[in-house]
Every structure is written in C-alpha cells, then in structure tokens.
User: Fold Phosphatidate cytidylyltransferase from Dehalococcoides mccartyi.
Amino acid sequence: MLKKRVLSGCLLAIIALAVIWIDQPIAWLTLAMAVVVALALNEFYNAVTVYLKSQPFKALGIFWGMLIVISPHLQIESVLPFLLGSFSLTSLIYLLTLKDRTDAFPRWAWTLSGVIYIGLLSSFWVALRELPMGREWVLWTLILTAATDTMAFFIGSRFGKQKMAPSISPNKSWQGAIGGAVFSIIVAPIFADLLGLPINVFVAMLIGLLVSVAGQTGDIAESLFKRNMHCKDSGNLIPGHGGIMDRLDSLLFTGIVVYYYVIWFIQ
Assistant:
C-alpha cells in the first residue's frame, strides 16, 4: 500500500508541476481543475446517492461546478455571485418541473452543497494562478500543502498517541498535526526564496502555519463527509490514495488562504 501511495504521489506531483507551469497554448491548470472538479463532484454525488438514498441533480451540479472553476477567466464583474445566484435560481425553477417532488429540496440542497464545497473552493486555485507570479504562488501553496500532509502522515504513523478527532478520523493525531505544521513552517521561507516570491521570512512562516492549519482542517472536513456517508474512501481512482476527493480535501482549503493573502497584502 505504501509503495502504491508513493508511486501515485510522484506521478500526481509531476502532472501537477506540468499543468501549473505551462500555460500555452491553453491554461492547462484551468483545464485540469475543471476535469478534477467534474470527477470529484461525480464521487460526491454518487456517495450521496448510494449511502443517503438521495439523488442530487448530478449533470446540473457538475456543469455548474466546472463553470465556476473557469470563472476567473470570464470577463464579468462579480462573476461568482452571478454564477451562484443564477445556479440557485435555475435549479429551484427546475424543481417545479419534477413529477415527483417528495425529495426535491434535499436533492437540490445536496446538489448546491457539492457545487459550493468542491466547485467554488477549487476555483481559488485558478484565480490564484491568474494573479501576477501566479504559477509561483500556486506551486508554493501546493508544496506547503504536500509538506503538511506528508509529515503529518509519517509523524502520526510513528508517534501518534493523542487522537485529534477520533469520532471523525481515528487516524489523525495531534502529534501528526503538529509535525505537519512545523514542517510547513520550515519549508515555507525556503521555497518562497527559491521561487522569488515577494515575502519575508517571518510572513512566509506565518502563512506556512495558516496553510497547514487550513489543509488539515480540510482533511478533517472531508473525513466528516465520509463518516456521514459511511464509506472509507470517496473512490478508488488513485491507487494507494482512494478517490479524487481524498486528494483534493486539503487543497480545497489552502488555495483560498494564499489567494486572499496575495490580493489583500501583495497586490
């Protein structure tokens, strides 16, 4: 299992580096994120269907989730409120066309929650890439997220005693969480300097801590979803890692942290 996990992780890292760095002739990161969001939403809606016996409007949710991901490229003022508002309106109107409306609002709520949780939060990676020095910021955020996940896994496996949230994720420990946070703090200024980011050592360490906390919070949030769905993994697409959502969980929370730091304090 560990060998599969490492090999899959290395392959994912190579693909991620390529789509982050290359933006010609198309925005490869945007295309990759749109595909990832479609796959993750499919896992999300399938889990709801199988384990909660509710049927979200899968096609509608996937289409709108992908549209929100590419929205940073759309030249429309306040595009996100527009997309979320129009989705809410059109999907509620769609409810009125159903012949059987007994489970209509739970189906609508699960559809909307997937769009917001996966589509909206993923869009901040595309938005971050579109900023000046965007690929450097994206790569730095990805490195900090991976550093946290990797060190938390190894420290937690070796030294984890005090469980962080045993009712949600029994394998998460405070030792692993602290180890991941410390490692993120250490590597943050190193890679910020290597990538030429306009950020000093102290601030880099602070953002490293915030990214680590955000990533681990995202991990626990996805664990809560799986706990509610009574499933161990969101899927089995990635050998040794589970499904797309199992790899996307931390990233959903870390991209937004660095994005708002850049637009509030750097731009």
Strands lie at 163-165, 169-173. The longest helix spans residues 201-229. DSSP finds ten helices and two strands in the chain.
